TrEMBL record:
Residues 25-121 form the Purine catabolism PurC-like domain. InterPro entries: CdaR-like_regulators, PucR_C-HTH_dom, PucR_C-HTH_sf, PucR_dom. Residues 405-462 form the PucR C-terminal helix-turn-helix domain. It holds the Pfam family HTH_30. It comes from the Bacteria. This is PucR family transcriptional regulator.
Length: 485
């Protein structure tokens, strides 16, 4: 949430004083300085407007206040000792009559100091939201490795509410808590609205419940639906978390099932293919890339758990295939640094690449053990099957490439939907950014302000950044978090 007007006014170094009574908890989304008689065409609502009253007269004060109130500004800061020694009584009376918060700005306080203070508060809030969302996404990714049920359980706990995973017909697959199962019947009309609309979502407000329902799947026929409910409306960060959950469930629904891949690997081995590989792992395994040389082989041979793990010396390091349930025990045996892949059941070459990337990062950061899923963004991307992922990315981004809008959308996604921040990152005016994003929305046929759509775009952009079979390498999302002034 943005800082409140009361929080801004409480900053002692600014010396702001309310002239209209107690301050409300109205959010301040930005600070706007204007000496126009009518600044409202340049405002969006929620701003703290600052003025010296250069064009203010006793005759136009009431109309000036009415325009600001109609635009929905957070409040008005009036500098005294510049044009007017005190706040004009007509302005003060109009503000009190029309419910506009009026702050007196002392002569020693420059407007830029107020703008910087609010920017710092916004940046702190933005960083807190991003950190909270990132940590939640990591937790969801780890849960997704166990299965959809674990992901739904983790999501409900992160939101402090309930969550339902429904199949395409509306039947309950997973419910957290169990009592949430009874809510499925009431959601049937909303599911009917969502079925023909890819990447769509609906929000409902019922007594004591705020509900969001999102469609799972990329094709014309939905793979299922995710519904969440909380006591209060979801904040922005929570929408991002729900979008990540939908993306993970969509990826799982569109990716070939693990058992099918394992059966294919076993059949290939029995038929004499592939040419290399002494055996097919039983169940999920992890690949460890170890820089310890022959000491790694000695350590494996010294322990019963390690003896079960085939190892292969490579150029400069050693690769070890470890059953997932033994990973922790084997990691403790081996000298560091060690890079650990995500769990894998079929493509061990990809798992080796993950482990080698984690090993490089571990050596650079002087860590003994580093998991690939702990690298930024790797948890989600690690669930993708490369062929399907690249086809998904190419299809989604093709219309944007034709209109040279890929970098615009990348900056908007990196800014988490904050238009001002994206415009600054691109070095363009916010109106230019808005026009480009409207065009992008038309081309995509979906709304980039929907967190689920932004999650899909982030994944597509990350996949597009690595054109080889390998995906998910460090730095896929080229745009870092835009700086707030």
């Amino acid at each position: 949430m943005p800082p409140t007007l009361a929080a801004v006014a409480a900053l002692r170094q600014l010396g702001l004083r309310s002239r209209t009574g107690p301050l409300p908890d109205a959010p301040v989304v930005w600070v706007a300085v204007s000496e126009l008689e009518d600044p409202t065409p340049f405002l969006e609502g929620g701003e703290l407007v600052l003025t010296t009253g250069m064009r203010l007269t006793s005759a136009n004060a009431a109309a000036y206040v009415a325009r600001l109130v109609g635009r929905g500004v957070a409040g008005l800061g009036f500098a005294v000792g510049v044009i007017h020694e005190t706040i004009p009584p007509e302005l003060l009376a109009a503000a009190r009559d029309q419910g506009l918060v009026l702050l007196e700005v002392p002569r020693p306080t420059p407007f830029i100091a107020i703008g910087k203070a609010v920017s710092r508060m916004l940046a702190a809030e933005w960083y807190e939201d991003v950190t909270r969302a990132y940590q939640a996404q990591r937790e969801l990714t780890r849960a997704a490795l166990t299965g959809p049920g674990a992901l739904v359980t983790r999501l409900a706990r992160l939101l402090g509410g309930w969550a339902l995973l429904l199949d395409a017909s509306g039947a309950v697959r997973h419910a957290e808590p169990a009592g949430a199962r009874s809510r499925a019947a009431a959601l049937a009309p909303e599911l009917a609205r969502l079925r023909p609309r890819p990447a769509a979502s609906v929000s409902l407000a019922v007594p004591d419940d705020h509900i969001a329902v999102q469609r799972i799947g990329l094709g014309g026929r939905p793979r299922g639906f995710l519904a969440v409910g909380t006591d209060a409306p979801l904040p922005h960060a929570a929408h991002t978390i729900v979008g990540a959950a939908v993306a993970l469930l969509t990826l799982q629904s569109e990716t070939p099932r693990t058992g099918r891949e394992l059966r294919a690997s076993l059949a290939a081995l029995l038929l004499g293919r592939p040419d290399e590989g002494p055996s097919v792992p039983r169940g999920p395994v992890r690949v460890l890339a170890c820089a310890g040389g022959t000491a790694v082989l000695d350590a494996l041979e010294s322990d019963p758990a390690g003896a079960r793990c085939p190892a292969l010396p490579l150029d400069g390091h050693c690769a070890v295939i470890v059953p997932d349930e033994l990973a922790g025990a084997v990691e403790a045996l081996l000298p560091g640094p060690i890079g650990v892949s995500a769990p894998a059941t079929g493509d061990l070459a990809a798992a080796l690449r993950q482990a080698e990337q984690a090993l490089a990062a571990a050596a650079q950061t002087e860590q003994d053990v580093l998991h690939y899923t702990d690298l930024p963004g790797q948890g989600v991307l690690g669930l993708l099957e490369p062929g399907l992922a690249h086809a998904f990315a190419d299809t989604l981004l093709a219309p944007l490439r034709e209109e040279d809008l890929v970098e615009t959308v990348r900056a908007y996604v990196a800014a988490n939907g904050h238009g001002e921040a994206a415009a600054r990152a691109l070095g363009v005016h916010r109106h230019t950014l808005r026009a480009r994003m409207r065009k992008a929305a038309e081309l995509l046929g979906r709304d980039p302000d929907d967190p689920a759509v932004r999650a899909e775009l982030w994944i597509a952009l990350a996949v597009m950044s690595s054109r080889s079979g390998q995906i998910g390498h460090r730095g896929d999302s080229k745009s870092g978090p835009p700086r707030l002034a």
